[in-house]
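Appendix C reproduces, verbatim, an entry submitted by the partner laboratory led by Prof. M.T., so that reviewers can inspect both the input and the predicted structure.
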Amino acid sequence: MGMGKGSTARRFYGRWARLLAVPVVALSMHAPVYAAPATAEAQARAIILDPLSFFRVQDLHMGDIVPSAAAGTVRLRPDGTRTATGGVTLAGTSHQPARFAGLGRQNQQVTITLAANSIQLTGPGAAMTLSDLEIGSTPTAILSTKKTDFTISQPGGNYNFPVGGTLAVNANQAPGSYTGQFTITLDYK
């Protein structure tokens, strides 16, 4: 990161020059060893923001949970920390808060509301309730169907915020994947 393009190029050409300095006779005396070509793929992603835009960057994932004969809860905070109560045991590290981003103006006020205070996650067993959706602001705030006002503080007007929540896990919850959807509305003022 701290290296400019010029020093990267000098380093590359410096190595190349050392490779060319190997005597040609030595190269012709050894049979070349060819490795099978290897390929790998990666994804590249860019997001171009429109003024007064707002979008989801990542989904809320409560992570892997081990139920028991006792009900319990899993709370995932906006900062990514996760805790459990009751008969629930946390497993793995696949949990993540939802993340949203957008573009307004510095010092512009925005109003955030939820369509519903709680949602149902459905899957192979009884539905579970996700509630107390919490935005990672300073200070953090529980989102609700009531309007919550925030001010965009970044000089460029860009912002992002995480959202966590609390999941009520039933006693003897059937294993499997459970999903639901929540809607956040953001109004620029």
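The helical segments are 5-20, 24-29. Additional entries are available on request from the coordinating office.
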